[in-house]
Amino acid sequence: MKSLKENFQKAHIVIIGSGIIGKFNALELSELGFKITIIDPTQLQNSSNAALGLLMGNMYQKRRGRSWDLRKKSIELWPQWIKFLQKFNCELNIEKPLIQLTTNEEKFKKLEKFIYENNDENLRILGKDSIFINNINKAFHTKNIKGMISFKDGRINALSLLQTLDKYLKHKKVNYLRGEIIKIKKSNNQWIATTRNNENIKSDIIILCNSLKAIDLIDNLSHNIKLKPVLGQAMEIEINDKEVDLLSLPKQFNINGKNIILKSRNKLIIGSTDEYSTKPEENTFEKLTNFLDEKPNWLMKAKISKKWFGIRSRPDGEPSPIMKNLEDGLIICTGFYKNGILLAPVCSKWVANEIKNYIY
Ligand SMILES: Cc1cc2nc3c(=O)[nH]c(=O)nc-3n(C[C@H](O)[C@H](O)[C@H](O)COP(=O)(O)OP(=O)(O)OC[C@H]3O[C@@H](n4cnc5c(N)ncnc54)[C@H](O)[C@@H]3O)c2cc1C
User: Fold this and answer.
1) Structural domains in the chain plus CATH codes
2) 254 CB less than 6 Å from ligand 1?
């Protein structure tokens, strides 16, 4: 049996896909001393680049089960990673708090019950007399908005996070290969990943972080994993109206399921849609502003200044996400339909533990 250090230094790990899940695994595993190669044909079109970066963990209303466990662990891990990554980008931060609002009385009652039963000092009800609610009612011309505030949840700028991870990986001299993997196979106890250009990359371990395309690389008869695409659109709108004071709004909040981020005094980001397709539907503005029965004038007159989309993978027949050890030296992390940014640290921690168990 080789020593722990010897095994760690020897093992070469190939990560297929460089969205947030691939990059975070590369970060965690290179900190452990592994030799990493990360492979992706293009990072530009992945869903990570489309993400709004909201970290909705502590406000999750089910306080037991796998989904809650994953969220809870990620919330614990995030502050440590932020501190670490600030060495590479001192501006990287989680902007807190996060506000969740509803105009539905029944949903609000559920929120009240959740907060009453959990007695968590980081969660509070926002009633009619709160300053946040007052400002939101004033801006959106509403009367019946209520909700909760979470001081532990917030938002990280997803693009800035991805760029910071790139900077770290470059600093660590992690091998980045631009290419599409079309086949993987095991031969003589080694994994071989073949690119479209017929290049073979040998490794001890492969981690599939390539979202929907992961199932093309595995033997689906033995593993039976099904994924479906869910497209999400988001937009930035520009408001040319003195009627509204956007700067009075919270930095990030959610009304009736739509996430709203304050970008500047005349710009908001709104996301996202859930479209079971790979082509974006055309009525983006309509779909993203339907969170209120009656829209204020300034919102109706707003212009889209930017819009974008990303395609996520949703597991079919099992809960999201899929994190599995498929066979010796082959791990899959896919199906991050929602919350891939939030859950990246818990995913990489799980992968690191699986690899430690495999090696020893
Ligand atoms: C509009 C929108 C808003 C969102 N907002 C949030 C949010 O606020 N908070 C949050 O936590 N989550 C959010 N999400 C969800 C989040 O973006 C996803 O959960 C996350 O990005 C999934 O990351 P991933 O690394 O699994 O996949 P991806 O980012 O899609 O990366 C997969 C990568 O695999 C590569 N690849 C594919 N096939 C191959 C191959 N054969 N060989 C090599 N590489 C390959 C692709 O090029 C791609 O770069 C949002 C998503 C969208 C679309």
Assistant:
1) 4-56+158-226+316-359 (3.50.50.60), 98-151+229-315 (3.30.9.10)
2) no
